[in-house]
Amino acid sequence: MDIEFRDMMASFPTGVSVVTARDGSAGPRGMTCSSLCSLSVNPPTLLTCLRSGSPTLRAVTDSGAFAVNLLHGEAGWVAALFASGAPDRFERVAWRPFGRGRSPALVEAAHAVAECTVERTHPSGDHVIVVGAVRAVERLRHESALL
After folding, report:
1. What is the rounded distance in angstroms from the CA atom of residue 108 to the CA atom of residue 116?
2. Under CATH, to which class is 14-139 assigned?
3. From the CA atom positions of the chain, what is the Rg in Å?
4. End-to-end alpha-carbon separation of the chain, Å?
5. Do 101 and 22 contact (CB within 8 A), yes or no?
């Protein structure tokens, strides 16, 4: 049933994001993520689901901060790059530190970015639900989202 479930969910269009964080001396970390949900407007809160054991999840929980980069419609290659696990992915995209947590903002691939601090985490299956308090939002361009 795992394959059938994955195929079913792949047929449900949703926006694509890259979640990024700083990992101390190891540098930036990031992964493609389509599991993103606005949880509350007041206070602004979102949740994302990250794969258990991933270096990005470790950076998010260790630093207590992360950025959600909402990719624009022409950034499909960035989604593929950050899904690949390529070790040089941050050398292949334009980015800058964003907000107080200094998490990477993908300045050319994202149409908007949100800086979050970790409020809580909840393990569930092979992922961890991360609830983030939104601390800053920046609109980088007015383009449609990558679906």
Report:
1. 20
2. mainly beta
3. 14
4. 25
5. yes
pLDDT tens digit sequence for 72-110:
999 999 999 999 989 999 999 999 999 888 999 999 999
Rounded Cα distance between 35 and 53, Å, is 17
Q: Which residue has the tokens 């929980």?
A: 61
Place of tokens 């200094």: 102
What is the identity of the amino acid at 108? E
In 3D space, the residue among 119, 113, 116 whose CA is nearest the CA of residue 131 turns out to be: 119
What is the mean predicted confidence (pLDDT) over 115-133?
97
The DSSP-derived string for the chain is -HHHHHHHHHTS----EEEEEE-GGG-EEEEEE--EEEEEETTEEEEEEEETT-HHHHHHHHHSEEEEEEEBTT-HHHHHHHHHT-TTGGGSS--EEETTTTEEE-TTTEEEEEEEEEEEEEEETTEEEEEEEEEEEEE----PBP-
Domain locations in the chain? Answer: 14-139
| Distance (Å, whole) CA 20 – CA 29 | 6
